């Protein structure tokens, strides 16, 4: 086993292995930070299974109103949600006739950012268009 003596402390090694999440670590309990007497590094590592989880997804939901022009909504859907003209027109009409529709689905930070950007931009142009986000199960 490679000795780290003189380079990093045992505590630093433990922290770094723990933070990496790549290994389960086991240290010889006799070996402590600050001990004078050392073995040559009684450290056993074993590969841990990766603990990965997909992030929760949020829908950016666009709400209907009576004032925002249809063309403006279609442009927003193309610019912020990467829809083509046909898709954007479909989503806009769904909002118009049914009250709301999903513009896109993203991890939370991205969904929040897009909803905020759209709301601010619409307000800056004098329209009440509103997006909100909803956790998808
Ligand atoms: N209802 C609006 C109109 O008749 C159009 C509209 C569509 C507004 C979708 C908002 O999210 C919206 N001009």
Automatic annotation (TrEMBL):
Origin superkingdom: Bacteria
Domain Adaptor protein ClpS core: 53-132
Flavoprotein is among the record's keywords: no
Gene Ontology biological process: protein catabolic process; proteolysis
Swiss-Prot/TrEMBL keywords: Hydrolase, Protease
Parts forming coiled coils: none
Xref: InterPro entries: ClpS, ClpS_core, Ribosomal_bL12_C/ClpS-like
Self-association and partners: Binds to the N-terminal domain of the chaperone ClpA.
Family the UniProt entry places it in: Belongs to the ClpS family.
Main function: Involved in the modulation of the specificity of the ClpAP-mediated ATP-dependent protein degradation.
Listed name of the protein: ATP-dependent Clp protease adapter protein ClpS
Organism name: Acinetobacter larvae
Gene encoding the protein: clpS
